[in-house]
Amino acid sequence: MADSGIDFLPKYLAELTRQGLSASTEYVKKTIVEAWLKRQYGVTIPVQDAESLRKISETDFYKLFKRYLGGHWSLELIKVGLYLQQLNEAGDTQRVRQLIDEAYQKRGLSGSRIIQLASTGVLELVMNYLIDLKVRKRVDTLVLHKEFDKILEEWQSISIPIQHDSKEVVIQSEIQKIMDRKNPIFFVYACGSAARNAQLILAGLNNTKFWQGKYLMYSHVKNVRRQDGAIIEYCMWEFEILESIPPTVFSQ
Amino acid sequence: MVVEALTKDFKSFIRLDDDPKKLLLEALGFGIDSEGFVIKSETGIRERCRYTGKQILFKDASVLPGSTVIINTSLITLSQYILDYLEE
Hints:
The complex is a heterodimer. Chain A has helices at about 10-20, 25-35, 45-55, 60-70, 75-85, 95-120, 125-135, 140-160, 170-180, 195-205; strands spanning about 40-45, 160, 185-190, 215-225, 230-240.
């Protein structure tokens, strides 16, 4: 083969097409196959999507998550979710709907929930929470798997979204309902223009010591630069029931 | 025989127009039937996507790096492929 550069195969195929040739002759076929098996290319339709997914797979954040959650069934959907968050396609309901359906067919309700979490911008924060569990509590990988599975299964009943026009009294009531059920953990989240409203509501409730003595609150904040350059703030507050926190020597 | 990818030399994904893509598939032992599905040239049997289990329309087909693995293209199948073959 005269040329083995990166552009050879596309150019060669284009030239054959221009000349109206097929791959029926042994030489042509052999040349194409040899170039193909150099493994430098993948032919796909949405090149930009494929390259973006590959870049996500090379980020430190994804690699860290994969290291801690290694072998979890969700990894193929996690990359798609992170990509969706980058695009911020929450408004592209048709594409999100298609992905939710495909994820459901492949992985059931928990699979579709990963795409839902991504479409609301909270997936990365949930991943942060799991990474934090590993770092803070040295939780075993299998326990992390179970934790993630449980979060996905029960997300509807353990999470409270705050909108830009949500009222404090309504959010207070939602939080109260979950605390009455004594859920070991629950999440409150908001993004974009709703983030400020959420911060004010939770600060107000915190000042009234609303969850004091019952739950500990941790906050996770992430600023994401979208592909169009805009920066979007994502906030998630994790509430952990105090009973699940082991006492220290001095607190006993 | 399916040639699996070993992708340490992988450079990038590319898009081919229909005719060059047909040529590539032809060289790799595939054809397209009258309804537009990818078939194995030797047997005429429709190829199935390893990730979706479904038959593959030519217009939806991705050919994976250095392999004769053809898949139905979606973000999820591409992501699965990257996980299986391109990630460390």
